[in-house]
Write a structure and sequence with these properties.
This protein has 161 residues and is of the alpha/beta class. Helix content is 33%, strand content 19%. The protein is built from 8 helices and 7 strands. Strands 4-3-2-1-5-6-7 form a 7-stranded mixed beta sheet. Helix 4 links the parallel strand 2 and strand 3. It is globular.
């Protein structure tokens, strides 16, 4: 896991897990089925717009609400390669690492980056570059052991070796 580059899907504050994946779809274990309904209550067209490698950007308290792992699974399976936010809800933060979804906290980037911008993220350095505007931002990169968990696709794969 070194870097990603993609088009931005931008959201605001307090995007909760019930919006990321509505509770009415939690009776499925299919990751593809979860991804098919990702963000539909806040952005009906998200699943039609998202492409593999795209990046989700939101502001403060992303992933608040219930502790369901379904939320980061739906985001990752939809094709999102990284989520950048001002702050993450604590349980979402940990669930994202557990399932191998790269996330970066950077308030300045989260506020400046616009929907549709092209953004690259270097996970080793924490540098986020808005390719559309040329502006760069510095997030704190994860320690190597967490980068390894994410690179392996999550904690279970990491433990299996």
């Amino acid at each position: 896991m070194e870097s990603v580059k993609g088009r931005v899907h931008k959201y605001g504050d307090n995007v909760d897990t019930d919006v990321i994946i509505p509770a009415r779809y939690l009776n499925t274990a299919s990751h593809k089925e979860l991804a098919a309904h990702c963000m539909e209550d806040i952005d009906k067209d998200f699943v039609n717009k998202v492409r593999p490698g795209d990046i989700m950007v939101a502001e403060k308290n992303f992933g608040c609400g219930s502790s369901r792992e379904h939320a980061p699974i739906a985001i990752k399976t939809s094709g999102i390669s990284c989520v950048i936010a001002s702050t993450f809800a604590r349980i979402f933060y940990r669930n994202a690492i557990n399932i191998g979804l790269p996330i970066m906290e950077c308030d300045e980037a989260a506020k400046d980056i616009k929907d549709g911008d092209e953004v690259s993220v270097d996970f080793n350095t924490g540098i986020i570059t808005n390719e559309t505007t040329g502006k760069t931002y510095k997030a704190e990169p994860f320690p190597e052991f967490i980068q390894n968990i994410i690179a392996k696709g999550g904690l279970i794969n990491y433990i299996k070796g």
